[in-house]
Design goal:
Order of helices and strands: EEEH
Number of helices: 1
Bound molecules: zinc ion
Structural class: alpha+beta
Largest sheet: 3 strands, antiparallel
Helix content: 40-55%
Shape: elongated
Strand order of the largest sheet: 2-1-3
Radius of gyration: 19 Å
Length: 72
């Protein structure tokens, strides 16, 4: 379960993880003051989402490959 009160973010620019004072759409990195490099650090859920997307991509490629072999 994700605790919305302690949503942490990580800055891709300086690798600094932090919890913003006020939860907004555009949390600012306290180190380098950037907003565009800041991403939600909600780790496990995000990771599994990425893996699911890659699984879908691979499944589609696999099916396309079979279709190419069978029908091509
Ligand atoms: Zn930063």
């Amino acid at each position: 379960m994700v605790n919305a009160m302690s949503a942490s973010y990580i800055c891709a620019d300086c690798d600094y993880a932090f919890v913003p004072e006020e939860a907004g759409d555009d949390p600012r990195c306290p180190k380098c003051s950037r907003t565009e490099a800041v991403e939600p650090a909600d780790d496990s859920a995000l990771q599994s989402d990425i893996w699911r997307q890659w699984l879908v991509v691979f499944a589609l490629l696999f099916i396309a490959g079979i279709a190419y072999v069978v029908f091509g």
